[in-house]
Amino acid sequence: MTAPNAEPSGTAPELADGGPRFGGRPVHQRLLALAPALAAEVMVRLLDRLPDYHALPPEQLRGEITRQVERGIRAFVEVMRSGVLPGEPELARIRESAARRADEGVPLESVVGAYHLGAQLCAARLLAEAAPADLPDVATAQDRLLGYLRVVSCAVAAGYVQERQAALGDEQVSRQALLSRLLEGGDPRAAADRAGIRLPARYLVLSLAIGPHPDESRPGVNRSVAARRKLRRLRAELERRTDGVPLAALAADGGPVLLPDDSPAPAPDRTALAALLDRLARACGAELTAAATTAAPAEVADAARLAADVRRVAEATGRGPGPHLLDDVLVEYQLSRPGPARDALAAMLTPLAGRPELLDTLRAFLTTGLDRRRTAARLQVHPNTVDYRLRRAADLTGLDAVRGPDLLTLRAALAAHDTRAPSGARGTASPSC
């Protein structure tokens, strides 16, 4: 069983007889006599059953870790003798030891398991000597054993988690600094070195829009808590599904995501991207819409702005959840650029202002390949209603969706209308998220 720190165990104090007895002999005396052999056995079992300790240097195992095992056995002996659980000084040393193991990368389950392993071996040696007449003392010994493991396990977890939280905090700060540098432009190498991250040949740059989780609108459910849980699950799945270190600045409704991409392909793999988004959506329980492009680290800033624009165009033109590339919205993207032609095209639909049902019918009619029945099914109306709305839109705009010469103009007018920024936002820079 491991113990709190690297201090030498020292000379065994004289312990008064007390506590449970097996065969008339105090349990703690038997443990004290077996302590050297038990320490050696614990070390052998520890390396055999908890291979994570093999990652520690041999001199550390022979020195610090062995002394910790000896101290742990002595602390257990004292609990058996007096029934008094380890006090704050001992627990503080245990927390410090657990923090060192956390810093060394030993998993928490292995650190806790080492204490349990030592206690198990001590208990096995003692119980082998117990007779039926010793049953009350066996119960006392087991009670003290469980009490010892309870306080020690809590101390180990507290020290370990505190160290990991501090390390993760520093790691998160350095990752966010790298992400900011990449999104701002310039040379990111110094920020990558501080974060301990190898820059990939290129990044898959995503502009991600996250829909609401059903719990966010459920009566009686705290909306912010549901949103945080959604984001936590998404980030965890993103970490699991990404080779390398993903970088993201996500709010409840989305944000930029950079995924390392060392593949030779110069453009995003649509199939792989669709599969990733599907897994992320299932993990977080919300619809995801993403625009994607690839860029070398020094070009991420421009790529992030492009991805954000492509996503907004895809959303504005009703493309729905899933992956979207620039090639999917080339015409709409170009028509979304400010200029007199875009404004003139959008103005063609001004007569339909205040008639969203007519605009929705035009969009659906064009999206379904001019199929009135599919349009009716999508809008959940009768086909005759579709015919009426198309005629009404033609009367108001002079553009007939079923007349060939007007079709291209109508498509362009809808694209310009849907992608044009509100008047208060015109001329502003596009955010990178």
TrEMBL record:
Parts of the chain that traverse the membrane: none
Residue stretches making up the RsbT co-antagonist protein RsbRD N-terminal domain: 36-174
Pfam families: HTH_30 (PF13556), RsbRD_N (PF14361)
Record InterPro entries: CdaR-like_regulators (IPR051448), PucR_C-HTH_dom (IPR025736), PucR_C-HTH_sf (IPR042070), RsbRD_N_dom (IPR025751)
Coiled-coil positions: none
Region (Disordered): 1-22
Top-level taxon in the UniProt lineage: Bacteria
Gene3D superfamilies in UniProt: PucR C-terminal helix-turn-helix domain (1.10.10.2840)
Segments forming domain PucR C-terminal helix-turn-helix: 358-416
Protein's name in the database: PucR family transcriptional regulator
Organism: Kitasatospora phosalacinea
